[in-house]
């Protein structure tokens, strides 16, 4: 398994569930990603967010998950006042169909980054 994937879960049908799903569907959980150290030290939050999203999508692609298969993300921010810049970066990066977004304020992140993003995708 890849280093940046925490685990995968098979989405199995349940006898008690009124909904049926494809038995081959798996959820894939990606560990938090941050921008590289140079970007973290020299760029603003919008650029850091974009760089982190690019890195996250590269990690997802390694495991066969495409951008449109990312379902949800959690974004950790050192400055919650910058949430608008994060949303602008998301709008630019994902264009029409972006995953759900949860913002969480934190005191500090590795490499002096201002943003860290973890994600859940679906492997169809």
UniProtKB/TrEMBL annotation:
CDD domains: YjgF_YER057c_UK114_family. One of its GO terms (molecular function) is deaminase activity. It comes from the Archaea. Gene3D superfamilies: RutC-like. GO terms for cellular component: cytosol. Pfam families: Ribonuc_L-PSP. This is 2-iminobutanoate/2-iminopropanoate deaminase. It comes from Halovenus aranensis.
